[in-house]
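Why run this: before we spend reagent on co-expression, it is cheaper to look at a predicted model of the complex and decide which construct boundaries make sense. The entries below are exactly what would go into the expression plan.
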Amino acid sequence: MTYRAPVSDILFSLRLAAGTDAGGIYADIAEGVAEQTLNEAAKFAEGALLPLDRIGDRAGVRLADGAVTTAPGWREAYAGWREGGWNALAADPEFGGLGLPALLNAACTEIWNAANISFALCPLLSHGAIEALEAHASASLKETYFARLVSGEWTGTMNLTEPQAGSDLALLRARAERNDDGSYRISGQKIFITYGEHDLADNILHLVLARLPDAPAGVKGISLFLAPKYLPDENGAFTRRNAVRCVGVEHKLGIHASPTCTMAYEDAIGYLIGEEHNGLACMFTMMNNARLNVGLQGVALAERATQASFDYARERKQGRAIGASETSAIIAHPDMRRMLLTMASLTAAARLICFETAASLDRAHRCDDPVQAREADERAGLLTPVAKAFSTDIGNEVTSLAVQVHGGMGYIEETGVAQLMRDARICAIYEGTNGIQAIDLVGRKLPMSGGAAVKREIDDMRAIAQESHYAAVGDAVEAFAAASDYLAGVMKTSPNEALAGATPFLRLFALARGATLLEKAAGAARHAGDPNATRYETLAHFFAKNVAVAAPGLVKMVTEGAQSVTEGGELFAR
Amino acid sequence: MTYRAPVSDILFSLRLAAGTDAGGIYADIAEGVAEQTLNEAAKFAEGALLPLDRIGDRAGVRLADGAVTTAPGWREAYAGWREGGWNALAADPEFGGLGLPALLNAACTEIWNAANISFALCPLLSHGAIEALEAHASASLKETYFARLVSGEWTGTMNLTEPQAGSDLALLRARAERNDDGSYRISGQKIFITYGEHDLADNILHLVLARLPDAPAGVKGISLFLAPKYLPDENGAFTRRNAVRCVGVEHKLGIHASPTCTMAYEDAIGYLIGEEHNGLACMFTMMNNARLNVGLQGVALAERATQASFDYARERKQGRAIGASETSAIIAHPDMRRMLLTMASLTAAARLICFETAASLDRAHRCDDPVQAREADERAGLLTPVAKAFSTDIGNEVTSLAVQVHGGMGYIEETGVAQLMRDARICAIYEGTNGIQAIDLVGRKLPMSGGAAVKREIDDMRAIAQESHYAAVGDAVEAFAAASDYLAGVMKTSPNEALAGATPFLRLFALARGATLLEKAAGAARHAGDPNATRYETLAHFFAKNVAVAAPGLVKMVTEGAQSVTEGGELFAR
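The model came back. Tokens follow.
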């Protein structure tokens, strides 16, 4: 199964998100850096990562004596990754990074994950560690560890989950005790640690959440530590094995080549990041970006599944189209076209939403105007749960549709689309389940600045809807506005009823935002005479008339459906 | 992962579908046979089939020298199946069957497939062969083969698909030539043959579609043959190996323990079933029942996934519910309740639709009144594509939701719900893809008797909707009525536009029919003081307010969405 990184499409979406800032905060993009970077990224992804995707799925990883061996070719690919400088795209130039904007990094993230999500997870986790260290680590920790993490010589992990503490980190039990020299000793078991152990790099920097003996209960008693796999010896070489070991790897539905490890800490040496008991805040620093990256994984797998399905539907001949005298390629059949347009339009909408989110992160960091920066920060916060949950939901839907388009062949593992469906399924779960994203949207993001953030988003959508040919676009925006108003009120009086509508509300937001962004894209492409114009017009038309039309049903679920959810009588009793 | 066959629920649904016929054509059910049969079926399914489900998933099947070895324990389970008389439930008593109604057989089919779909597929295919032979085989063929197929001593297969001929059987190439003794020689390759080769029974009866040399082109030139794995020798013992061999087994996403075989025929001896060139009509005889059975597989896996999710949500503790002072079981959280109610209500609705379909098949065969019998036959035809496609669509949705409810644990294969999702995924594909079901509904079933069949269905739904508390039920029925009217007209003038709306139309039908059947169930249970009353009231309430509310969006997709599908510009060009 091939994959051609859709550089022209990505570049167009990226410029749309950059908007009028293209010459300002995005001067690096305007200068052609973006196009060149994307073309190089495409080359590496298609040449080095894609061929390993299926090999990795079949071979998985092997654990023996605490050491994890990755699939054949993985080590060479990672060396190529590091040498190509891909690990350093977004990081601070002071430590060897390229300091490229989040938007361009998002575009590359899509490409890596489309080619090989199991591989891409390793740098994804390293980036999380880079962000946390960048924002919170002491100068001495940074000096020792940061540059090698940025270059990719070493990799990073996130150790949050424990068997009893998944979505609820308040239940976390791992312990940390103070050593005399200012370091700490960490003990406990962590599960589901992505690339917790592997053979791609010489050292692994574990970021670990644990509790100090005098820590308050709950999430306010959690501290963040850096526990390297190898500690420095007397000569400053990293040869001393720390007391952290991989004691198991999971047998998973997908992402087989990404080692999901159970890690045992037994008085492992750790160094505090940030302040004691403030670990969760440190984790939150990187949350928006990490969640956006997972959303991009959904876009990535949806894009690849869509490409594979168009290819197959053009090749495979079954049945005669109405009026045809010979057997037709199945792409001629209307029901097949519905599936393909559903896939392509959901993917494009999710990409546009993710890129808007990335652009908001850039504006929050780069805008000189403090009001603009704050509003951009709020917008990133508002859009992030939508980018994460909607993109990964449609990642599931689109990869499953790809199996359907391929018919019986889709169910055979050799074809490859079943792997995309298996791989995609984790994205709606990790980095905060999609239910948690919806709760975050309703409970924390809607009330931001007294509702001003969502109000600005609605105004922006209304302006686009007013210009639209399609009534369904305006209907979707108004349905979202009505649902927002309703929830803002109910959240104060009956939070259970509000939260019962969180998931349909998030979907409603995505449909309104997706429909308006596709309209905007179609209009911009048409106006600029861009070669993508017809494509975006087709997708905007289809999305309005066949996807966004779900909005009136969704607003009813939000405003009238909750009572049947919160009640439930004997069904919820033991 | 446990499974408790929901006998009380199934029995209630079954009596609802039997309705006022309970004492008439269903005298065998009224006499308590149903309850006893279901309790015994539950015992066998839970005791003998369920424990093998995961073993089979892990072990798969092994092909060596043309022989397929099934997973450990499979042979013993099949022997128990045969000895328990389960294979003979629905077949003609003249040949050793029990002659039980299709409705009761449907109930048992759900139970077998919930416990172990890979196992249940073997008898499912045998039943198809039984029906085809019963209706079309000569007396001499029946005498030789039928009783052993009914008892389960031998099993049956369906050989339709070839690499170039899947959904489109007109492209079929397998050849048959006449022998002097009245038999035929069959040559060609068939793919995706379920239980095409295995070690559970001493002989396998292949039903094969092939073309005679003088056959007309297309589907009117296809004949149906019986080609046994072993042919009778001079003593009447079946020892002569026929020239049909398994040359490959597929590596699939799911149903690992069910051998999906590539079969090579090289002048294999076959016997004509029915008349030459009339093979497709013979296959159509059993189509309704086979499609209903696949629909029941969807219900089965959805039921099992729902049970597992309720169990997990009661056990797993994360987060505090609003107002709670301690960590709550996740079932207390509104977003989790939404997922669980979605699963339970979709499953119940799909079961009710499948059972209505089965009851219609019974009435078509058993009613003395020819008008009632014909109308029942039409109703079975109308409901069958909905039973197949909706039930298997929700099979995918509900098993995926089960993974979501289980969070990270759901993604780990050991938990078992990921297997349900993998297994379920085939059901929307085989026995006519769900797209083909939708096309069948719009192209062949809506026009039946000048639209009278769908009119009767709408009348029945309207009568229930008028009594409903929930406006959404009536809205769904009227949306369906409007879409039916629209399609009946457009199918004649612009078939492409009609077929572009086929899939949302089928879903719309299912939502209207599901909502009204749940209402009917709730009303009947309440009226009878049935212990299921509260449960069905809760499900009917939730379904009306959170599932059926999609209907107004779906009718728009049907009536206004087609143009954006049939057009598509450069997207569909090479």
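DSSP finds 19 helices and eleven strands in chain A. The radius of gyration of chain A is 24 Å. Bring this page to Monday's planning discussion.
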